[in-house]
Design a protein that fits this description.
With 593 residues, the chain is of the alpha+beta class. It contains 17 helices and 31 strands. 29% of the residues lie in helices and 22% in strands. The protein binds oxalic acid and manganese (II) ion. The site of manganese (II) ion (MN) has 3 residues, from loops.
Length: 593
Amino acid sequence: MTQNKYVLNWINEMAEMTCPDKIVWIDGTEAQAEALRAEACSTGEMIKLNQELLPNCYLHRTAVNDVARVEGRTFICTSKKEDAGNINNWMAPEECYAKLSKLYKGSMKGRTMYVIPYSMSIVGSPFAKYGIELTDSIYVVLNMLIMTRVGTNVLEALGESGDFIKGLHARADIDEENRYICHFPEDNTIWSVNSGYGGNVLLGKKCFALRIASYLGRKEGWMAEHMLILGVEYPNGETKYICAAFPSACGKTNLAMLIPPELYRNNGYKVWCVGDDIAWLRVGEDGRLWAVNPENGFFGVAPGTNLNSNPNALYTTMKDTIFTNVVHNLDNNSVWWEGLDKNPPTNAIDWKGNVWDCTKYDKKDKSTCGAHPNSRFTALAANCPCLSSEFNNPKGVPVSAIVFGGRRAKTAPLVYQSTSWQNGAFVGSIMASETTAAAAGAVGVVRRDPMAMRPFVGYDMGDYWAHWLKMGTLIPNAPKIFHVNWFRTDDEGNFIWPGFGDNMRVLMWILARCEGKVEADITPIGYVPHAEDIDIEGLDGVTVDTIRELLTVDKESWLADIDNIKEFYAQVGDRVPQAMYDELAALEARLKA
Ligand code: OXD
Ligand code: MN
């Protein structure tokens, strides 16, 4: 398929180590994909679902011990430990290569090594970066065919160049004790072993498009961020784009595919999805920041996805989708998950492959769930009913606003605007989420997750913040930076803001601010809306007073947060830019004034 000596030499070297029986090149054709689906079904690796209800859809179950990303076993292997920073796990490259080589040795005996040439973003576009993933898993091949752009055209675009990301994945024994997800940013290399779970093995996603890409972005003057991208279309046909970063499980996919409230729909407003998880951002010739979604599909969490929370996501999964770790409904050979509807199947197999008794389901006891709480759908972006017409535009879309967010019961107001790019980068650096009752462990524990990138920055966090500050100086017409919190609760712990489609009302304020069309109050934390400027028309049970309550800045809880931020900055270490400390000191002084 290629004469590229860098590619061929590397594959030879990896094959000598892993000893596959066969090497198969993935060409991106439907005929080859179909043959692989049939093979995976013949071995039980996948189950073909009801083709009338769910055309071209399949079910896969991972090993019971292998259901999520493993941050504790994720390493950044730079030659100097300081370059990986205090927030990442670090291993010396030689040590890591030696350790993992032992695990890879002979691991593909009796198996096939698949060679997947893929592109993150459109092949040949200014944003595109190429990778090759070697894997012994058909499930990985079929997921990569959805999540990235795969095929011979990638090899053609690469030509004789050695500039590609070398990814090696082997399932080995799916041994938790020897599971490693390792990144060598100085060598453009990713090694993943002993897992079969998407986030650890679809190497184009978190490993390449965030960890390696963030490292490359710093070197080359662009940004790789954990952000959704959406477009708001106005009745006059103009569309404005927003990028938003929320920690995992804070509703990025729901916001990205938002359906506007009825009133807005009737008035001709539309929301278009460009991406739900990752944005690559570059400064355009026009001095604005431009964003592409480097992915080609959605790897979304299934539980909680339903016709109310996210109908667009649900429609997207109705064909050409791989479901992982959901319930198998044997009555009609389809799938189900908690929160899909109120009719759990009575003749069903759970995510572990056991007969599932839905009558024993207890919301508070996760072990009774039929679908794993982190069960997933891998679905083609092209099947999303609200996919933006700009999804395949190689130039990307111009960004008007960047929105940070977290899950905070009290501290953060519904929305506020930073006062400058530097202040906005500071707002990103102090992002945090509180654990909910739904998660194991204590409730209300604050986890700081700067820019939602804590698990995904491929280098030192302080250097990453410095890169954010530097980018601000390179974008003459920079987006405005905001922070939202959909999750404020009353004294009984109930959410005050309705969320979902009504989040559009907050996006409208954000865009009005970007256009300079609405005034705001300056507070110690930044600009906060006049309560009357958040549109509540047609919203049941929400009054201007409710909005006023949602917008209050509680100085006490902010001052308590300052201590936690100081601890976190100390943990990030001595590369935290002085400008961030200056912002923090100024915030504290304003709160105390
Ligand atoms: C994801 C995550 O899977 O952020 O997107 O964990
Ligand atoms: Mn994510």
